[in-house]
Design a protein that fits this description.
The complex is a heterodimer of chains A (about 270) and B (about 325).
Chain A: H1 2-28, H2 37-57, H3 68-89, H4 92-95, H5 97-100, H6 109-138, H7 151-175, H8 179-192, H9 206-213, H10 216-228, H11 235-258, H12 260-266
Helix pairs in contact in A: 1-6, 2-3, 2-6, 3-6, 3-7, 3-10, 6-7, 7-10, 7-11, 10-11
Chain B: H1 2-11, H2 16-21, E1 29-43, H3 50-59, E2 64-78, E3 82-86, H4 93-100, E4 108-113, E5 117-120, H5 133-143, H6 148-162, H7 177-190, E6 195-199, H8 207-222, E7 226-231, E8 242-247, E9 250-256, H9 257-271, H10 287-301, H11 312-325
Parallel strand pairs in B: 3-7, 3-8, 5-6, 6-7
Antiparallel strand pairs in B: 1-2, 1-4, 8-9
Helix pairs in contact in B: 5-6, 5-7, 6-7, 9-10, 10-11
Classes of the chains: A mainly alpha (about 270), B alpha/beta (about 325).
Chain lengths: ~270, ~325
């Protein structure tokens, strides 16, 4: 009896989660001219712009383990899992306040839905990445290795990290509504502190190197690139990736749980 | 069967120890609020942004203040009752509502309910503008706790009641306010949760639709649904058979709707907060203290006459003085 009710409730929440994710994906490219195709095209076009800027204007010649277009694309789409998840989650509880004030529903569902939709977006972007990789493969600049499959090992860690941060931020936003502006500045800083378009070999400041080493996104991005280049990340790399993920998830969830009554009062 | 299932699930997340102390819920009782006291700690000045926090911290101006929002509120609502919670703005009605629906855990006491709650939200609230009407129906009902199958079953009825025709496939942001109201109302009213939560006035669409809504609400009442209506005005009077009057976080009076509404309106008018003929008798400048004290007097005089459970003796004076302090025009 007891078990039946719990599973029924979980199934219902799963259904709600599915609806929310579908809604997010739809809204993202709502009524755009080419629809879902845009989810694949968007990262490709972004990559082209960055490629042009960094190899022609800033005079690249990056020593990377991947061809530069692939290097750019791979870094950006992994970073975007976290970026999209957190920036959409930040205001998500406040946006739903009308409903959340009146209905008892687990609030963590909303940031979870946002994180899952950003994972879906990663899926679309991954298709774009494969397209570029195939192109480069034909041109003889890249070859596929089995280790690319290890991306499924990386994704749970990135997800845990994004989820934890999303929980934390969406809860905090209820109390500090100007966090949005602050966070966008922080996000810019974070983007530059992650080697998305430059390579770490160019860094000669030990302070910057150590800061970057403490940046979890650096490790996720590097993991992804290693896997794409045919290498297998070390056990320590795995430990770091999952360590950051699990710790942030626990912090975020615990914070949201601890302040949930204050959230209800302040919504 | 279904009722008890949900009643249980509502309590699951509460600590086991606290739940076991509670006596079982009376058989015909659908909503129970027992000795609920809610205290908030807030910054004395509104701090709701990082900027404010930093500025105040630098000024050394960050004093925290504890204030009591609800004080020892208790009531029970039986199945099929239509109860209005009335009181002026800011007396703790919304907080009480949050506690009743289980969103907010009170500082002391507890509140619980059996079944599901359908909230009737204000105009267009809780909708996603970019999603179509149809998608919003599913989304809203799912947030209320319904499964896909249950929504599928009710869908024809919702569509029929909303009278939106093909607009149901258009994004909600293209809707007129009347259409929004119709959609929201149709969802809440058709899902037939055991408890209907109605917040403030029912300003729904044109008068024809409004009539339809009132007819439907009356029908639902006959079906035995329980209504909890929150209002600061007289508009919902005809829907209720019982009213709970809240002032300054305490229950002032609880009894038959007609009588409580009369006293409430009289008290409002006497305070001169609303433009009313009685306020003309009082000299405007020093009116409030005297006005307040008269209300206190005649409010405490009445309840013995009627068989109400008023706890006025201690509550009323504070309530009256509170109103004198922050007199503001009553929205109608």
């Amino acid at each position: 009896m007891e078990k039946g009710r719990t599973t029924q409730k979980l199934l219902q929440q799963g259904y709600l989660l599915r609806l929310l994710v579908r809604r997010n994906i739809k809204n993202q490219y709502y009524r755009s001219f080419i629809g879902v195709l845009w989810t694949v095209l968007n990262p490709l076009l972004n990559m082209l712009v960055m490629w042009f800027v960094f190899s022609n204007i800033f005079g690249g010649n990056m020593e990377a383990n991947l061809p530069y277009p692939l290097y750019l694309l791979s870094g950006n789409i992994v970073f975007n899992i976290m970026r999209t998840a957190t920036t959409t989650s930040l205001p998500c509880l406040v946006e739903q306040r009308d409903m959340l004030q009146k209905t008892r529903v687990p609030i963590s569902l909303f940031p979870t839905a946002n994180s899952l939709s950003s994972l879906m977006t990663f899926g679309f972007s991954f298709i774009a990445l494969l397209v570029v990789a195939i192109g480069l493969c034909i041109a003889g600049q890249y070859s596929f290795r089995w280790s690319i499959l290890l991306v499924v090992v990386l994704l749970p860690a990135v997800m845990l990290f994004s989820l934890g941060l999303s929980y934390f931020l969406s809860a905090l936003y209820v109390f500090f509504r100007d966090l949005k502006h602050l966070y966008s500045v922080l996000m810019t800083l974070w983007t530059y502190l992650t080697p998305l378009f430059y390579t770490t070999s160019r860094l000669d400041n030990p302070l910057v190197t150590s800061v970057i080493n403490l940046n979890p996104m650096y490790h996720y991005v590097t993991y992804f690139r290693t896997v794409l280049a045919g290498g297998v990340p070390s056990a320590v790399e795995h430990l770091i990736c999952y360590g950051f993920g699990i710790i942030l998830f626990l912090i975020g969830y615990a914070f949201m749980h601890a302040v949930r009554n204050n959230i209800a009062a302040n919504l | 069967m279904a009722h008890s299932a949900h009643a249980h699930s509502q309590n699951v997340s509460r600590p086991e120890r606290r739940r076991s102390k509670r006596p079982p819920m009376p058989e015909n009782c659908l909503i129970e609020v027992s000795h609920v006291t809610m205290k908030f700690t807030k910054y004395e000045v509104g701090v709701d942004s990082v900027k404010e926090l930093v500025v105040r911290a630098l000024k050394g101006d960050l004093k925290r203040e504890k204030f009591v929002c609800l004080r020892d509120v208790s009531f029970q609502i039986r199945q099929g009752e239509a109860v209005a919670v009335i009181g002026r703005n800011g007396v703790g009605k919304s907080t009480l509502l949050k506690i009743v629906s289980g969103i907010l855990t009170p500082t002391e006491g507890y509140a619980r309910f059996r079944g599901r709650i359908s909230p009737l939200l204000k105009l267009g609230a809780g909708f996603d503008g970019n999603a179509t009407g149809l998608e919003n129906i599913y989304l809203n009902a799912a947030i209320m706790g319904y499964t896909k199958r249950e929504i599928d079953e009710k869908l024809p009825e919702i569509l029929e009641f909303a009278e939106l025709g093909d607009f149901i496939y258009s994004p909600v942001k293209t809707y007129s306010s009347g259409m929004l109201a119709r959609l929201g109302f149709s969802i809440a009213i058709t899902m037939e949760s055991e408890i209907m939560l109605i917040d403030e006035i029912l300003a729904v669409g044109d008068s024809a639709f409004q009539k339809k809504c009132y007819a439907r609400l009356t029908e639902l009442r006959r079906k035995g649904l329980t209504f909890l209506i929150v209002s600061h005005g007289n508009t919902v009077r005809s829907l209720c058979d019982r009213a709970i009057w809240i002032e300054r976080g305490s229950v002032v009076a609880d009894g038959p709707a007609a009588e409580i509404f009369d006293r409430y309106t009289a008290a409002l008018n006497a305070k001169g907060t609303a433009p009313a003929p009685t306020s003309a008798q009082n000299p405007p400048a020093s009116a409030q203290p005297t006005a307040a004290s008269t209300t206190a007097k005649d409010a405490s005089a009445q309840p013995t006459a009627a068989s109400t459970t008023a706890k006025d003796a201690s509550a009323q004076p504070t309530a009256a003085s509170a109103t004198a302090k922050d007199a503001r025009p009553e929205e109608k």
